[in-house]
Design brief:
By secondary structure, this protein is mainly α. 81% of the residues lie in helices and 0% in strands. It starts with a helix and ends with a helix.
């Protein structure tokens, strides 16, 4: 169950990162509220998962999921470049996250 919570917390990291960008320096109320709620839930989930997953593994997986998710949203929905080198680098991060789970 800790791994499921950790993955969901990583996805929430993507949500709060995108909301932070959309908040325009916290001048837009809805994205600002989404940011705060997603951040709190993401951190709470990470904290809960770290009760049974080692800190190094858990934090690296959480950051990896958030980073890859945020980059993918940027490429798919926010017109950021989806170049081959960028995609390869994201795949390497995914491989690292999977490797951390497999060798946990």
């Amino acid at each position: 169950m800790a791994w499921v919570v950790l993955v969901l917390s990583g996805v929430l990291e993507t949500v709060w990162a995108i909301a932070l960008g959309r908040s325009a320096g916290f001048s837009r109320p809805l994205p600002s509220v989404v940011f705060v709620v997603a951040l709190l839930l993401s951190m709470a989930g990470l904290a809960w998962a770290l009760r049974s997953i080692p800190i190094g593994t858990g934090y690296a997986v959480w950051v990896g999921i958030g980073a890859v998710g945020t980059a993918l949203v940027g490429m798919v929905a926010l017109d950021e470049p989806a170049t081959a080198p960028r995609v390869v680098c994201l795949l390497l991060v995914v491989a690292g996250v999977v490797g951390l789970k497999v060798f946990h």
